[in-house]
Design a protein that fits this description.
heterodimer; A: alpha/beta; Rossmann fold; five-stranded parallel β-sheet; two-stranded antiparallel sheet; 3 helices; B: alpha/beta; 2 domains; four-stranded parallel β-sheet
Chain lengths: 159, 310
């Protein structure tokens, strides 16, 4: 995925990464490490919590809510939004709203580890680790070594 | 998220986990105030009413701004310019406000239990912004948020509350919150304003200010509530200042990293010297900034819980 991002954005000097809490955090950190090796320069990285921007706040409270930390001005940057699983598209919509409150990126690209389909909004990822067609009765669990798992894993679970 | 309450009525009934949830949520909302666009759409389309039957400026403004930063609509209702003056009961006033489809009613009232009373019959969320000398939950939450932010923890800290404890809802809410979070609480002030009965809550009571501040990590100063005192509880302001004011000489007796807090409004030269209030040890203005974040978190959580389990 890092090579696809690098191919699309040649020198990468305008690129900044933004991981979406919580699922996108580790993927964003790993992509940054890879991209810094490819481009030989530091790549800015931030994190966004979309809870305050979701359209279903009235239906459920999130499990927790993390500070949004974007340590750079997104204005004029090519921002690559990063999440683990792309599903309805509502999280990505909320993340784009949150991001545009902070500045006006030159463009926004989307990188996800898993695209599980079932979109409810016209949103499409630019970089996809794996497409995984699922039904609404199924759940996709992603585990990371960074969180103490013995191995990275993506599991398709019957809900 | 461990939060299922649609009302915030007091600190006494909260669990330590619920208090932590508010603090963590407030940490996220604090970031919103530091941006160019200080607004998020979390409460878009919701109506919030500030029902202030007792006067207040800073708490009302803080709640008003909190609601606006969450994109809610907010109406300010003050007793002076209302039908309460024409004899309407509090219950009827609240029912009328709810008939306007208010989602959250924030109430400040001179009577203890007024918010609890409203919560019994309203579908809207009720948030206590101070009821008599009983509780002022958001003040306590912003105080412990500030303590946690500055000290990295609450448990194990020595917190001294100095001043008018008897008539202070800020003191009561703070005592509950601090004890639940594992802090050691010492109360100090004139004996008429700091009765020994507070020891039953688990606090230490002393009338010696030097002893009270010597080991304190936090010194929270309270204003003398002239408006709540039915008779003179101490001989004179001059004597209070001589015996209990936090001045430079007393500040020198404290731990070098002890922080000075005050819920405002401060009376310079009475409970606190100007030099001390403006010193680097004072976090009084941080409390104001944090109050906004805490109130955003409270509105967000109560609204979310009400929508989830009406």
């Amino acid at each position: 995925m890092a090579h696809e991002v690098a191919e699309r954005n040649e020198q990468g000097t305008q690129v900044a990464l933004v991981g979406i809490h919580k699922g996108g955090v580790h993927l964003a950190e790993r992509l940054r490490t890879q991209l810094e090796t490819i481009w030989h320069h530091p790549v800015p990285l931030g994190f966004v919590d979309v809870s305050m921007h979701r359209d279903d706040h009235s239906e459920r409270l999130p499990r927790s809510i993390q500070p949004t930390t974007i340590p750079f001005d997104p204005t004029g940057k090519v921002v690559v939004l990063i999440d683990d699983v792309l599903f309805s598209g509502r999280t990505v919509r909320a993340a784009m709203d949150a991001l545009t409150d902070l500045g006006r990126p030159k463009s926004i690209q989307l990188a996800v580890l898993i695209d599980r389909g079932n979109r409810e909004l016209p949103i499409k990822a630019d970089f996809v680790g794996k497409e995984l067609p699922t039904s609404l009765e199924e759940r996709v669990d992603v585990t990371w070594r960074e969180d103490g798992a013995t191995a990275d894993a993506v599991r398709l679970v019957k809900a | 998220m461990s939060w299922t309450r649609k009302h915030l009525l007091d600190i006494q009934s909260l669990t330590p986990e619920e208090i932590t949830t508010v603090l963590d949520t407030a940490r996220a909302f604090k970031g919103v105030g530091e941006r160019a666009i200080k607004k998020v759409p979390a409460l878009r389309g919701k109506t919030v009413i500030n029902l202030f039957v007792e006067p207040s400026t800073r708490t009302r403004i803080s709640f008003e701004l909190a609601a606006q930063r969450l994109t809610a609509d907010i109406i300010n209702f003050t007793a002076e310019a209302s039908s309460l003056k024409k004899g309407e009961t509090l219950k009827d006033t609240a029912k009328n406000l709810e008939a306007l489809n208010a989602d959250i009613i924030i109430i400040r009232h001179s009577a203890t239990g007024a918010p609890h009373f409203l919560a019994r019959f309203l579908n809207a969320s009720v948030v206590n912004a101070g009821d008599g000398a009983h509780e002022h939950p958001t003040q306590a939450l912003l105080d412990i948020f500030t303590i946690r932010e500055k000290k990295g923890k609450i448990a194990g800290l020595n917190v001294t509350i100095l001043g008018d404890i008897l008539y202070s809802r800020v003191a009561r809410s703070n005592i509950w919150a601090l004890l639940k979070m594992g802090a050691n609480v010492t109360l100090c002030g004139p004996s008429t304003l700091v009765p020994r009965t507070f020891e039953q809550m688990g606090c230490k009571v002393t009338y010696n200010v030097e002893e009270a501040i010597a080991n304190a990590d936090i010194i929270n100063l309270l204003r003398i509530q002239h408006e709540r005192q039915r008779q003179t509880m101490f001989p004179s302001i001059g004597e209070y200042t001589a015996l209990f004011s936090l001045n430079k000489a007393r500040l020198a007796l404290t731990k070098p990293d002890a922080l000075i807090m005050h819920p405002g409004p401060i009376n310079r030269g009475v409970e606190i010297d100007s030099d001390v209030a403006d010193s680097g040890r004072s976090v009084i203005l941080d409390q104001v900034t944090n109050g906004l974040a805490v109130r955003m978190a409270v509105l967000y959580l109560c609204n979310g819980a009400r929508s989830t389990n009406p």
